[in-house]
Amino acid sequence: MRSKWAALLTSAALVAALSGCGGGNGGDKAASSSAEPQTASEQLVVKASNWKFDQEEYTIPKDTPVEIKLVNEEGAHGLQIKGADVKLSNGKTSKIVTLKEGTYEMKCSIVCGTGHLAMTAKLVVK
Ligand SMILES: [Cu+2]
């Protein structure tokens, strides 16, 4: 029966190894970050390029933790959402927020060039 036990132990070790590295998103940072204990149930990706956001209007659900994520596809842009305490740029590209129903103004928060002032969009929360 020695070989059977060996097989059991081997598979147990394998399971432990697999579950050890697969868990959670951004596992290494989760432990040290206490500022944002929430877990987002939705994600909104906003893509920025010279000089616009990829949509004129974004919609997210109200009263729901949503991770707002900024992706710079071209150039260096920021994302600020008025009234939602969101200010993203290259140093910090995502934030989890829970917003009340309404329409929020989004704009670029970095003076990025000639089209900077045109970089606006709407965030509809409903
Ligand atoms: Cu800008």
From TrEMBL:
Entry keyword annotation includes Acyltransferase: no
UniProt-listed Pfam families: Cupredoxin_1 (PF13473)
Listed PROSITE patterns: PROKAR_LIPOPROTEIN
Signal peptide: 1-22
Protein name: Cupredoxin domain-containing protein
Domain EfeO-type cupredoxin-like: 32-110
Domain of life: Bacteria
Keywords: Signal
InterPro entries, per database record: Cupredoxin, EfeO_Cupredoxin
